[in-house]
């Protein structure tokens, strides 16, 4: 399926801006969703286009993901000039590994230990469920569970005991994440807009947590939802293959004398 005329026109207008910032989620956008997140890899066509885009003048490119920084660096292997924002905006990589890695306080560690003690027996009781330990929280993953069992588990763990009531809860596709941080992809996008001094921002995402980024886009920004579901994004594409097409089109539009398909 080809990109819609409306989206192509929006991308043409967007790329005509002097300075642009192109941001994208990783899972379900740059990579296909698979059962084992550790086996995820960036689609080669998207990697090539993302790299080419990042090397163009006045064109900043970044990955904004809920994965921990160490995880996305290992799994995603982002191109050298691509900015990485991890842990829903809590960790930033701008030049080299370790620039801005979150380190929990003693109180955070105490809360996270209590959270793990609460979640572990509940997850262990459901076949296919597992806990993903993150720098500032824990995610309950049910992608491999029987559908109804996964839904029931997430409903149970959502009701936190009183001593854990201060945690931030984020829902997603077959996942519920609990965090000591209130950072979101929206706060990350706002920070990057100020850092890069531009309101010309494009963001592509597929999950519930990406809606925070869509909501934070300035009037000059473009939001692109990947796949089905309610969204605040102004445009929608079908899948990761169309993500590659969007990136390739922006490279062509942004490159002098490059033919546009």
UniProtKB/TrEMBL annotation:
GO MF: metal ion binding; trehalose-phosphatase activity
Catalytic activity: alpha,alpha-trehalose 6-phosphate + H2O = alpha,alpha-trehalose + phosphate
Highest taxon, organism lineage: Bacteria
Cofactor: Mg(2+)
InterPro entries, A to Z: HAD-like_sf (IPR036412), HAD_sf (IPR023214), OTSB-like (IPR044651), Trehalose_PPase (IPR003337)
Functional description taken from the UniProt entry: Removes the phosphate from trehalose 6-phosphate to produce free trehalose.
Pathway: Glycan biosynthesis; trehalose biosynthesis
Record key words, sorted: Hydrolase, Magnesium, Metal-binding
Keyword field contains Amino-acid biosynthesis: no
Enzyme nomenclature, EC number: 3.1.3.12
SUPFAM superfamilies: HAD-like
Protein name per UniProt: Trehalose 6-phosphate phosphatase
GO BP annotations listed: trehalose biosynthetic process
Family (UniProt): Belongs to the trehalose phosphatase family.
Pfam families from the UniProt entry: Trehalose_PPase
